[in-house]
Design goal:
The complex is a heterodimer of chains A (about 270) and B (about 260). With about 270 residues, chain A is α+β, with helices and mostly antiparallel strands. Chain A is about 10% helix and about 25% strand. Chain A is globular, with a radius of gyration of 23 Å. Chain B has a domain of about 180 residues: Immunoglobulin-like (Sandwich). The chains are: A alpha+beta (about 270), B alpha+beta (about 260).
Chain lengths: ~270, ~260
């Protein structure tokens, strides 16, 4: 009898252990409703005011318009990704794509070691509004997803001369990682860019993937520019503006609510 | 009853051991021969890279090279898309940064040999002695015997054959081996394939207060060998062609110096 009770208790404990729910750890978990948010795949070709390819003249004059968009959370475990696609015709020259995911990522905490937020206006950040967006581009005909429905990539299958099934990545957006190796992407809240040669009047597609979304609202804002010509030598958080939310009251010092403005402009003069 | 159950279990285990997974990936083994005509000192031979590729295209770059896939984007060359590959020797962190990324395993029978090929200057300008190098390695790795040195010892990769060439065994794990594919290889004699910013984190960082990586090879060496092949490196002027159902006994000759 005692043994049966023990077995029963052990079984109960085991079943209780199996009742763990890790969904709260997923980026798609909505704490307000307790449910998982669906992935969102945005076809930017069908929005009311889609992005445009900025002409070289406007690039030179600094008149390029920045497209501001937002995507929802990805379900990385199942491979269902949120993201957005934009299709444009090649110009016959090089085209540069720049993205900046929400908001700013503070990796400069050692710039000024005094610990004084007045002398170091970049000391404070609101870390719960940051996300990570990754960038791929390529010929639209090689894109494996369906705009507005499912995110894909530019990895295609072929059979080689020896009859072996192979895969080839035809992503044209080649970014270097920290070791100088091709194939890198930037991390949290950090902008990405790449340029590539295009064929005239040939459709190219830009694919933006939500790798992580801000934990405060499960929505990742981003800024996007598509330009004629090469990319700038260097970009930073302030090259494209608008990829931010209003920070909650008290999250930033001196009553500020725009972390991007605080980062790029510093504190207002008193 | 229990003996029958045991017999049944044993049979299941035995049958399980006989299970053939029919995986397309197989191991490929053979010998790589580095011609004695292109080697001055076998101790200074760099890391040997051996790949299994779809085909061979000596015209594209003007020297023996695997066939490549399409050139994508700004890549200067297409991906050679190896089925698999291996190396003879690997980069080992030699206890101090002065010769980081310059020491390959399987080349040095003794510390004296290593220091003869890779002389190290002390702070006062004198040459580092074997004892000093041993002490440095003892401090860095905690080795207490020269037998523990992974880049020094009697088990060398290459042996000299009767013809005066140098031979080493190679084994490429888990690769597709279709008939008609080729084995091609090169020797990186100037260590351009080593990335000093990758590899294990220095294991004495808490003692010396510095953070660095011990160094290891780049990940795409067999995908884009041309990125790393430079003057003085060696290549196989002719590939070895794989035949149907043969997985062992291949020989690859590396015999051409690139100028």
């Amino acid at each position: 009898m005692t043994r049966s009770l023990l077995l029963l208790a052990a079984s109960g404990l085991l079943f209780t252990g199996c009742d763990l729910d890790g969904s709260e750890l997923l980026q798609s978990f909505d704490p307000e409703t307790g449910e998982s948010l669906p992935v969102t795949v945005v076809d930017l070709d069908r929005v009311d005011e889609p992005p445009t390819v900025c002409s070289q003249e406007d690039v030179n004059d600094g008149d390029c318009e920045t497209y501001l968009g937002a995507v929802g959370p990805s379900d990385l475990g199942t491979g269902q990704l949120s993201g957005a696609t934009f299709t444009f015709d090649g110009t016959g020259g090089r085209v540069c794509v720049l993205i900046d995911p929400q908001s700013v990522w503070r990796d400069d905490r050692v710039l000024e070691p005094s610990g004084n937020p007045v002398t170091n206006p970049f000391m404070d950040d609101y870390p719960f509004d940051d996300g990570d967006l990754d960038l791929l581009t390529g010929l639209a005909s090689y894109y494996t997803g369906t705009p507005g429905d499912t995110m894909g990539d530019f990895v295609n299958d072929f059979v080689d001369d020896n009859g072996v099934s192979r895969r080839v990545d035809l992503n044209l957006c080649l970014q270097d990682d920290t070791h100088g190796q091709t194939g890198g992407t930037s991390g949290r809240a950090t902008p990405e860019m790449c340029s590539f040669q295009t064929l005239e009047n040939t459709p190219y597609r830009i694919a933006l993937y939500a790798f992580s979304v801000p934990v405060d609202d499960n929505e990742l804002k981003y800024a996007l520019q598509v330009r004629e010509g090469n990319c700038p030598v260097q970009i930073d958080e302030c090259t494209l503006r608008g990829d931010r939310d209003r920070a909650p009251e008290g999250a930033l010092p001196f009553g500020l609510d725009n972390v991007e403005e605080m980062y790029c402009e510093g504190f207002p003069e008193e | 009853m229990s003996s029958k159950a045991l017999a049944a279990c044993a049979a299941i285990i035995l049958l399980g051991g006989c299970f053939q997974e029919e995986l397309p990936e197989q191991n490929l083994s053979g010998t790589v021969v580095v011609s004695g005509d292109v080697v001055d000192d076998i101790r200074s031979l760099g890391m040997v890279y051996i790949g299994i590729f779809e085909g061979w295209n000596p015209e594209q770059l003007g020297y023996s090279y695997p066939a490549t896939g399409p050139r994508v984007g700004d890549n200067p060359l297409g991906d050679a898309q190896p089925y698999g590959g291996t190396t003879v020797g690997e980069y080992a962190y030699p206890c101090l940064r002065a010769i980081q990324c310059e020491v390959v395993t399987g080349r040095y029978p003794s510390i004296d040999d290593l220091l003869e090929v890779n002389p190290i200057a002390n702070e006062d300008g004198s040459d580092m002695t074997s004892e000093q190098f041993y002490d440095q390695c003892q401090w860095y790795y905690g080795w207490n015997s020269v037998d523990e040195f992974r880049f020094v010892g009697d088990e060398l990769d290459f042996t000299e054959n009767e013809a005066g060439d140098y031979e080493a065994e190679f084994l490429a794990w888990h690769s597709q081996l279709p008939a008609g594919s080729i084995v091609w290889g090169f020797v990186d004699n100037d260590f351009t394939t080593c990335s000093a910013s990758q590899g294990a984190i220095n294991r004495r960082r808490s003692d010396d207060g510095a953070f660095f990586r011990e160094g290891t090879n780049f990940a795409d060496v067999l995908n884009f060998p041309d990125k790393y092949i430079t003057e003085g490196d060696l290549v196989s002027s002719q590939p070895t062609v794989l035949t149907e159902d043969k997985k062992d006994g291949y020989q690859l000759v590396i015999d051409e110096v690139l100028n």
